[in-house]
Design goal:
The complex is a heterodimer of chains A (about 325) and B (about 70). Chain A is α/β, with parallel strands linked by helices and about 325 residues long. Helix content of chain A is about 45%, strand content about 15%. Chain A has one domain: 3-Layer(aba) Sandwich (Rossmann fold). Chain A contains 12 helices and 12 strands. In chain A, strands 5-4-3-6-10-7 form a 6-stranded mixed beta sheet, with helices on both faces. In chain B, a hairpin with a 2-residue loop joins strand 4 and strand 5. Classes of the chains: A alpha/beta (about 325), B mainly beta (about 70).
Chain lengths: ~325, ~70
């Protein structure tokens, strides 16, 4: 196969674009796709301070690399989840990348911040690990962005992630989640508590997971290839496998599903039919949705943390995690 | 040829010469779900691979909380 641009030997085929690329033109192509997405969705400006959530994996490190190459003021944020050797390796990959690029990386640890790790949280509360992990990451990413004064929180969600989430939300008709699925989630500030949900953006939504892996490899980024040991049986992974089979049979399926949704359907779900009101959490002050104003507003993070710490002090554990969906 | 597979890490022997498309088919792997690597370079589906090659088939789909 030849490179679409220079006719040199291609190193990657992108079947949905009906094109092959050599190394240099692939890196250029991918960077262009990210720049196009940032512009198309007005994600941020050149003088915004960006906090990039990095996990040591291919997506977040590739994204950070691209943002730095594009000249953005992009600081990394790594959250140590306390998942044994996996967390140590993912932290090493993040720290090593930051050092090589002379980029600033903020490192925090769940155990140090809250006295809990993701495996402990799962054991103590009965939440499946991916569910507790997602809750902690969303909370800590936002807290770090607020405390450190960043304008925008940037995550490495790629096209496959977004399609798998969309697929799951449609399978289960999670209409409120469908209403919130977008490449940009606007800031929601609460004047009463002085806190906010920081503006959140996903510049990789146009890029397939296979392409971020190829980018990382070709750029010599030493990302963590191993899967998280707690991910086994995760439903998001099964959705991705199913979608990959469809993409293999019909290139462009993923792009059509996601961008078709954004163009033709997402606006139909964007009202808040559940009547939720966003108020300050009575424990930590973070914005949280409440459905019954008569009840004390405590955010999911604080509820879960309180339960876990109570059980930890009592020396009790929950029943084994239920088999349930995670998004 | 030696073919390194991931998650969990293991190595299998596949006879060559063949090409990437046929190699993946023999291993029952969907091409869209992996990168095929030889000497730190990526291979497209139509590339030939040979008996003496050392190939890595690296999965690209990640799961979990995103």
């Amino acid at each position: 196969m030849k490179c679409k641009v220079c006719r040199d030997r291609a190193v990657i085929d992108i079947r949905r674009h009906n094109a092959g690329f050599c190394k240099d033109h692939f890196l250029e192509h991918l960077t262009g796709q990210v720049a196009k997405t940032i512009k198309e969705f007005s994600m941020f400006e050149s003088d915004d301070r960006l906090l990039v959530a990095v996990s040591g994996g291919k997506d977040s490190l590739a994204l950070w690399d691209i943002l730095l190459n594009l000249g953005y003021d992009a600081t990394g944020f790594y959250l140590d989840l306390g998942i044994g050797a996996y967390s140590r390796a993912s932290k090493d990959a993040s720290v090593s990348f930051a050092e090589q690029r002379s980029a600033k990386l903020i490192v925090r640890s769940l155990a140090q911040e809250h006295g809990l790790t993701v495996p402990e949280l799962s054991k103590l509360t009965g939440r499946v690990p991916c569910s507790g992990c997602g809750l902690n990451k969303r909370y800590e990413f936002n807290r770090a962005a607020l405390e450190e004064g960043f304008d925008v929180l940037v995550t490495g969600h790629n096209l496959d992630d977004e399609v798998a989430t969309l697929f799951g939300n449609v399978l289960h008709w999670n209409v409120d989640m469908l209403g919130r699925q977008a490449p940009v989630l606007e800031e929601r500030a609460l004047e009463e508590s002085g806190t906010a949900l920081v503006r959140k953006v996903k510049p990789l939504v146009r890029v397939a997971e296979r392409e971020t892996a190829a980018y990382a490899l070709l750029r010599g980024i030493d990302y963590i290839v191993e899967e998280c040991p707690l991910v086994e049986g995760n439903v998001q992974h099964r959705y991705k496998e199913a979608i990959t089979l469809l993409e293999e049979a019909s290139p462009g399926t993923k792009h059509q599903m996601y961008f078709g949704f954004l163009k033709k359907a997402s606006h139909r779900f964007q009202q808040e039919p559940d009547g939720a009101e966003v108020v300050a959490c009575s424990t930590c002050g973070a914005p949280t949705a409440v459905w019954d104003p008569a009840r004390a507003a405590v955010c999911s993070f604080c509820k879960t943390k309180a339960l876990a710490l109570k059980r930890k002090s009592e020396g009790s554990v929950a029943r084994p995690p239920r088999k349930r969906r995670t998004h | 040829m030696k073919v390194k597979l991931r998650n969990p890490d293991r190595t299998v022997e596949v006879s060559g010469p063949t090409n990437v498309r046929a190699l993946l088919e023999e291993l029952g792997i969907v091409p869209e779900a992996v990168l095929v690597i030889r000497d730190a370079t990526l291979l497209t589906r139509d590339e030939d691979v040979f008996e003496d090659d050392e190939i890595e088939v690296r999965p690209v789909l990640s799961g979990g909380a995103r």
